[in-house]
Every structure is written in C-alpha cells, then in structure tokens.
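Supplementary Text 2. Reproducibility record for the structural model of the 758-residue chain.

All settings were left at their defaults, and a single model was retained for analysis rather than an ensemble. We include the record here because the model underlies the residue-level annotations in Supplementary Table 4.
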Amino acid sequence: MSEQTNGLQQAAGSFQKEGFQHTEEFCRLNEYQKAAVLDESPACVVNANVGSGKTTVLIGKILYLHLDRNVPLEKMTVLTFTNKAADEIVERLRKIKPDIAPDQVQGFGTFHSVALRMLKNSLPVEEAGWTKEFTVMDPDEETDLAMKIIQEHGLKVKYKNRLKKRLEQEYQNWLEGKAESRYRDDMYRLYQLLEEEKKRQNKMSFADLLRVGEELLRIKAEDSGVERRDEKSGPAWILVDEVQDSDLMQIEFLDALRGGKAKIFAVGDPNQVIYSWRGTGDNMFYLIKHRFGAKELTLPVNYRSNASILAAANRFLQFGNRIQGTREEGQRITVRNHYDPFQEAEYLAEKIQTLHRNGKSYREIAVFYRLQSQSGILEKVFDRYGIPYELSVKKTLKDIPVLNWLVKVLRVSVNPADTQMAAEVLADPGYGEESMYLRMTEFSEETGKRESVSAGELFAYFGLREALHPSSAGYQEDERLVMDFLEKMCASCNKEMESSQGNLTAAVRKFINSSALYGMKTDAGEKAPGDISECEGAGSEPDEKDRTAEPDRVSLMTLHASKGLEFDTVFIIGVNQGMIPLRCKNFEQEEEERRLFFVGITRAENNLELSWYTNPGEPGAIGEPSRYLRMIPEQLLNREDAGKPENVRSGENAGGDGRKSDLHQLRKQVQEQIRLKSEHARRPGSAGMAERGAHLQGETVKKEKEQKEPEVIRVRHRKYGEGILISEDDMMIEAEFREYGRKKFLKAFGEVEVLDAV
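Retained model, structure tokens:
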C-alpha cells in the first residue's frame, strides 16, 4: 500500500496541469486505482479484486496515456476476451471523448480479432501458406474436416467422439515437436494433413490465427533489426483485460506483439479463474508477472456487495489479501432447505412475485445453478406463473437450419477453394440445390465487384425463393429469417465498402470471418428466433451496470455465465454435495469449483440466498448441504427449512391468484421432456457432420438389434427400490424407477445392485 501511495505522490507532481488527471472521472478514483492509472512501468499487472472497478481503471489508463502522455490510440493494443468487453471499453471512452474515430481503435478487440486484422492488413500471411482472402473456420467445421481426413487416409485415431477436444488439447504438444501423441495413435499425422488441407482450402482455425500471427510477428521483428526498435512499428502500449483467462498460446502471441519494446499493462483476478477446460491455468496471472518481470499492484476495495456477502466471500478467497468493503453489513445470507427442485421452483416463483410487487424489478433478480439441465423446471414453473425470464443459453446460427445453410453458401461464394463447405451446401437435405454451385463459384465475377447491394438483390441472385421451397409449410418463416439476416449483413457490408473503398466480396468475407469469431448469437428468451445480434464493429451491448436499459426479466444462468455480472438479489440453487461442488477427479478441479462458487456469491449486491435439496434428483448429488455452506460463519447466516411439500403434492393453491399447482404432474412432464430430448439426441438425424460417417456404420448394428427382443434387466437401489436398467458403461449406470423416474449412478460407489434378467 505504501509503495503504491508513494508512487502516486511522485507521479502526480511531474505531469501537466491539463489532461485526464484533472477530470472529474480521475478525481473519483481511489488511491489504489489512481496508482494503477499513473504507473508507467515497462510491465505492470494489477490484481483486481471482485467489484473493485477493474474496467474503470483500464479505461482510465487508456485516457491517461492518450490525454496526458500523448500516446495515440492507434499506438495502443487493447486485448479483451469477449467482443462485448471490447465494445464496452470503446463506448465508455466515447462518452468522455466523443470524437474517437473507428480507425483509431482498430487495435481494440479480442486476441483472435486483433490477430485476424493483422494477418489481413499488415503481416505477410502468404509466407505461411495462405492468401489474404482466407476465411475463418469454427471448431465444429475443423472437426468435420478432420473426420473427413481420417476416413480418406485410413488414420487410426482413438476417441473420435472427443475429437474436437483432442484437437485443442494436443495441438501445443504437436507444435513443440513431441514424438508421440497422448494415446500413441495417428493424431500428429492428422495435424499435418489437416494443416495441408486448410492451406489448400485457404481457411484458418482460431488457433491458426494466434499461431501464424505469432510466427509472422517474430519473423518481422528479426527482419526489422534488434527487437523491432523502429518506433513506427508495432504498439507502444499493450493493455490486457481479464488477463487471468489467458492460455499459453495467447501469452506467446502477446510476447511476439510486444517485440521487446511495448509496455504491458494487464488487469485480472486470479480468484476468478474458472475456465481451465479451455486451456487457462490458475497460475496464469503469476506466470505473466514473472514472464515479463512485471510490477504487481492491487485493487482491494469492493464497491458492489454488502459486508455480510464479502465476509462470506473472503472464506473462499485463494489468492491475494482479503477483500475490503465500503458498505454496511446488510441482510444476512439465507440458507434454505427444499425437499426437491420442484418444490423450490414453486417457492422461487412466489418469492420473486412478492419481491416484484414490493417494487423490485425483475432485471435485478438472478437465479444461478451449476448445470444447465437445472433450468428446465424453473422455466416451466415461471411460465405458469407468468414471470418473464431470460435464459443465458446462446442460440447460434447452427441452431437455425436455414441460416446455417445460408452462411455456408456465403462462405463458398467468397472462397471457392472451400470444397468441404461446397459439398455440405449441395448435400443439405432441406435446401441443397445443384444449381447453387454455379451461383456460388461465379459470385465474385457476377456480383462481388459491386460497391453496394441490397438484401433483395442477394435473395434473387442466389435463387433463394426456389431453394427455400415456396410450397413447404416453413417457407414464410425461413424467408423471414433469411431476409432479416441479409438485411443486417448488407447494412454492415455497405458500410464497410463505403469506408474502405472495397468491393462486395471483400466485405462479405470480412463479415463472415467476424461472424465465425463471435458466433453470430441470438439470446434464447431475449430476442425473437432469428433476430441475429450485431456483429463485430456494428454496435455494442449496454454497459453491464446500466441495467435499466435491459428488458425487465429475471436472469436464469449457470455460475460460469454469471461472471462479470451483478444483481441486487441472487439465488444460488442446488448447493448440495456433489452439485456445488461437482465430484472432482483431482485437487485442481476442486480448487476451480471453489473459485466458481466464489464468483457466484460475489455477483450479489444486497441479497443472497443459497439453497439445497433433501432429494436432489441429480446423478452424483447427495441429499445433504454442500461443505461450502459449512465454511460460512454461522453469524452471517439465516437458516430456513421448507419441509416436505405435502401441501403442493395435494394440489393446494399456489401463486395467490387461484391457480392450482400439481407438482406430481409437473414432475412427470419434465421427466418426459428430458426423456424425449435424450432420445432425440441419439437419433441419427441429430448427429453433426462429424458423426454422419459413424451413423451410417451404426445403421447395420441398429437393424441387427431390432431383430432381437430387448432384454429387460432389473436393478435395486436402497432408496429408490426396484427399477429397470436403461444403460451402462465402464463408469456409469442408468436406471428407471417407477416413482422416481430415470437416475444415473457412478458404478464405483456400488449404489445399484443388478438383479437377474426377466
């Protein structure tokens, strides 16, 4: 603390009387925030506790460098982990400095988007085997291409059902020249063939963007002389948001981008590392500190939560000093026991209605859970009570068949070398037309040279009326979705062509690349199906704290999805042993589960309620409170017990408006819905492109099984009684019980006894 304060005092007297230091925004910063903003060390990492104003400091740093130290925005690279975060930073900068032009913030974006721009605009990508016209492929597309190569070359690759994950996890080992793959199969041969095919089709994966970008940056540095000392080359400052979420490939890209010259300023919270499954490690914050010899500052003061919530959060803190608060004690944390999720859903609906009647808006309320499957019961009950809600599950274009097909058409149109995608377009059972091939391959010559275009013109050029089959029952909906998409794309493309003096082909290619990077998502429950959100550079989402601009809906989301958000009132459900935390294989997983719970409870500003079930009904979950609840001091808690729901089982009044609630019937409906979804997931038609080859092979096996009468095997469980075996593998066993529905168990615990076949 004294070092930061002394640094602040020394720095404050040496700067001019004009600039960011003399603005109202700077004066509102606390001493820790000011020290971070004014620090000009070659490398600095800021350990920002939850709710401590991390984004405010990052924006303050940019303004200070630009206004006080005369660093052009063009000489800054600001790296974020989401498109939303990059947009928010730019929009908040414009509120203070409205005259910021788009070309000044070209270096603001995610690691992948910044790498993409550099490969397109300044790096010699041809030296790596691609052309400037390359397109970006998403992970599913790369997996499909890998499956095709495996089949064509007869490669022996194990665990194909996890191929997508293996492509990500073993990539670094291949790059480092390891002799054998993890499972001693043909995985490394697959990487080599996959790389050759991607170059032939002129496509890059997300990993390629960073890897090739890093390699070309290092070559450029060597060619430019000692460590790229030319002041006209590269950024002067690199600022990184959420640095704890970096992976090793991103760190290497950051190092190459720095070139030994640029200064680094990174902010993050090592207590919020919850994405290890995508390559992030819990030590990444400190790895960066030591890699670049960085000075460490802290932001210890939390402005969000009341003292009771922070006192509980400090019990789960793993790194750094205790979180300091600025607010009063507030209400105690409620710990409530429910009989099962069905009873809890009724309770939450009534509780939320009461809060709303007492003046609290729905948007100030959130319900968090560990597993996405837990939302189904809440959705049904909230629908019945008329409670508006927003589900955090993202619906991508792949969930909308006609738009998924249309994007493939556009991808081939701007990259005719993409034979894999061309085959998928023509083979599509719903929309594939042989005549589309010529339209796609002639697009650049026929239409791509234009300098403006309308949605109607593209609809006519591709003959979409015939492709969508006007006589089909879904034609009108498909036409609406397609036109809505094309209108948004044309608006973006026309704007791009006007600013860059380019042609339509280049503009569509840029649009498709950005859509691949950012998923082109629509939020289920928030927007109408097919209402595609704006792409990169086309707008920004509202400031996280300006919740009045959002629809008045209760937020339902997983603990992972809650990161970065805040709500007045938070309910965390299913805090049972085996659910929060989930059963863990090792210490690292256990520590991440603890950080995840920390993230969840620190989203609450004023009210926090934690609940557990006597009868959780989830595989692996135990009907007792999580050990996390025992870690919270008793004086911070207010315990409540809902008891067994005899009243709702008998159909008593629920909701206070005369509606009858039959939870027994609701259980049956939800269980049937889960069963149908499970069956649909196993149907051949629901398989992705990567699984279609396996499906064809499996048809013979399926027919052979259908010729035999299925064997019924009885099982017994000490709690649920006798049931029927549904399925089993080396680790799990699934059984159905008459009164309890389907349940899964770990074989290792020996909970289920298999009886004789009947």
